[in-house]
Hints:
72% helix; 15 helices
Amino acid sequence: MLSRVGETLYWMSRYIERAENVARLINVNNMLMMDLPKGVGTGWQPLIDIIGVRKAYEENHTDYSEQKALRYLLVGSDNSSSILNSIISARECARTIRDVVPRDVWEEINSLYYYAKDNQKEGLTKRGRFAYLEKIIETAHQIFGTLDATINHDQGYTFIRFGLMIERADMTSRIIDIRSESLVISEEAKPYENIQWISLLRSLSAYQMYRQEMGVRVQRSDVIEFIMHSDVFPRSILFCLLDLKSLIKPLVNSEELIVLIDEAINKLKSEDVRLLKNGYLHSFVDEIQIKFGDIHNGLAELYFLKQAE
C-alpha cells in the first residue's frame, strides 16, 4: 500500500471519530446543565479545554457564553476541531482515495457532510440541537460499521482502525483530565457530585457498561479506574492501547512502534489511578498524552511520507 493512501485512511478515520466525540460531548454537557441547578454547572469552557483550543478561542472571543462556545464547537470556521471542519477534512480525505474506500462509505461520508453543512442553523438552536448531534453520532457509527463490513481487512484497514483508536484514547484522556479538574465541588454542589460523574461516563457512552463492571454506585475512584484501566470497555485508555498494539504487530518494521505502545501501557499500569487527586491526576494524564504523541510520531516516521509533527 502507498504511504499516501495509508496516511489518508488514518486521518479520515481520526476526523470522523473526532466529530462524533465532540458531538457527544456537547449533547451530554447540555443535559448536565439541565440536571444541575442554575449557577452550579461549569458552563461551556471545559469543552473548549477538552479539545485543546482555549488559546485560539480566546483570541477571538471574550467570554464562554453558550451561543459563542456552541458555534465555535459545532461550525467554527476558525476551529480546525469543530464538528463541521472535522467532517470536511474527513470528506476531503475520502475524496482523494475513492478508489480505495467502498462506494457505500464514500456516500455516507458525503451525506454526513451535506447534512452537517445544510442543517447547521438547526444545530445551533435549543430545539434542534439534540437531533442534529444525534444524527452526526449515528452516521459516524454507520460509517465505521460499513467500513468494518465492506472493506478488505488488510493494511488499509489497519490504518483506519489505528486512527480511530488513537483518537479515541486521546479524547478519553482529555475528558477524564478536564472533567475531573473542572468538577464543581462546593458545598452547594455536593449533592450533585454524583450527577457530574455520571455525566463524565455518559460523555464516553460508558454509564451502562460501568454499572455492569463496577456496580450500581457511581464514585470518583471507580469511574477513574474504569475509564483508564478497563481491558473490556472499548473506550478506556488501556483497551485502546492494547488494541493499537494488536493492530500494528502484523505490519513490517513495527518493532519500534510496539516498544512505544508498551511504554505507554506500562506507564498507565504503573499508577494506582484511584489515589490520584488534585494536580497529580492532571500531571499523570499529561504524561500519557505525551506517549500518544510519541506513538503518532512513530507511526508517521515509519509508514507515512510527511514529517511527523
